[in-house]
Design brief:
- With about 325 residues, this protein is α+β, with helices and mostly antiparallel strands.
- The protein folds into two domains: about 140 residues, no CATH class; about 140 residues, no CATH class.
- Helix content is about 20%, strand content about 45%.
- It is built from seven helices and 16 strands.
- A hairpin with a 2-residue loop joins strand 1 and strand 2.
- The longest helix has 18 residues.
- It is elongated and about 85 Å long.
- The two termini are about 35 Å apart.
- Pfam families: FliMN_C, SepQ.
């Protein structure tokens, strides 16, 4: 397995609690925290919180733009060390206003490549520039205690601008077809191979409707979704076997074991809200406003009912859900 390319969607229990706490975001003053996937080349600014050493990670582009906007030089190698430390202090002063226990180190920032992972991100603006600062290697229990006091954002900022969105459905990574016999044997720790796995690395997933067409969509950071494909035939989508033999139903009737009948487990990774009027005429290539939120784990649903949860792991070309909790009796 290529560990560098492994999609790090597996969350520790502490991170799951933090994800649930943050929800759609929490805001204190001019700083908003969210929980999302981050990766890329960047720099780590050394800090500490209540005596624990940790860091603030910024993308390479944001750090270079900050230096250039103030000093007219984007390359940190061309700047004096004391000046770089001063720029770090100035930048992080916005966070210190809402995190009074945050201490900024006098050490230099260091280059750091952040692998794709779930992260707590603080978004703020300084000198007309927006920053998305990852709280890197922070003590999670302390962070949970701090953010619990921050006001929670409204579930849908889009809905507050217009009218209630009115329509909600699941965001799905894929699904798994199992017989009733196989369902009865499932337990915590088992892995479920995901069929029709969405390209999550490129922000694609399935928009799942019970009893309706399934939409393959791409989500953007600007609260928009673009429809990539529409499937009108759910049986074809799920690769179900159907009896198409000519003749009357009684002529083709044969014995079927109840335990052999298959059910569909849907791997739900989040929810999406949109205006009800936008549902009326969806077409491939169409881009619509929406609000999406990710759970930070996988909700396993059977006929619309959640029966378990787990984490996504990529094993070579396969996407697998490892069951963490299982409630089906």
């Amino acid at each position: 397995m290529n560990w560098r390319s492994l999609m790090q969607l597996t969350l520790s229990p502490e991170l799951k609690e933090l994800s649930a706490l943050i929800g759609n975001g929490r805001t204190q003053g001019a700083v908003t925290t969210t929980f999302k996937m981050m990766e890329g080349k960047g720099v780590c600014l050394p800090v500490s919180i209540e005596g624990v050493n940790c860091g603030i990670w910024l993308s390479e582009q944001e750090w270079a733009s900050w230096l250039e906007s103030v000093l007219a030089v984007s390359d940190p190698n061309c700047l004096n060390n004391d000046l770089l430390v001063g720029m770090s202090h100035w930048l992080l002063s916005s966070l210190q206003h809402v995190l009074p226990l945050l201490v900024v180190s006098n050490q230099l920032s260091r280059p750091y490549d952040l692998l794709k992972q779930w992260a707590v991100v603080c978004t703020f603006t300084l000198e007309n520039q927006q920053f998305n600062a990852v709280l890197f290697d922070w003590p999670l229990m302390k962070l949970h205690k701090i953010l619990a006091d921050w006001p929670s954002d409204q579930p849908s900022s889009l809905g507050s601008k217009s009218q209630s969105l009115g329509y909600q459905c699941g965001l799905v990574a894929g699904w798994c077809r199992l017989s009733l016999t196989q369902l009865r044997t499932l337990k915590v720790g088992d892995g479920l191979r995901v069929c029709a796995a969405a390209d999550l690395e490129n922000n694609c997933c399935w928009l799942w409707q019970l009893g309706g067409p399934q939409f393959y969509i791409r989500l953007s950071e600007e609260n928009q979704m673009t429809i990539q494909n529409i499937n009108q035939d759910i049986d074809e989508l799920l690769h179900l076997d159907t009896d198409t033999t000519a003749g009357s139903a009684m002529e083709n009737l044969h014995s079927v074991s109840l335990d052999a009948l298959e059910k569909t487990l849907v791997m739900e990774i989040g929810r999406l809200d949109m205006k009800i009027e936008d549902i009326k005429a969806l077409s491939v290539g169409q881009t619509l406003a929406c609000e999406s939120s990710c759970y930070g784990e996988v909700g396993i649903r059977l006929d619309g009912q959640q029966v378990g949860s787990g984490n996504l792991v990529r094993c070579g070309e396969e996407l697998v859900v490892r069951i963490d909790r299982w409630a089906l009796k």
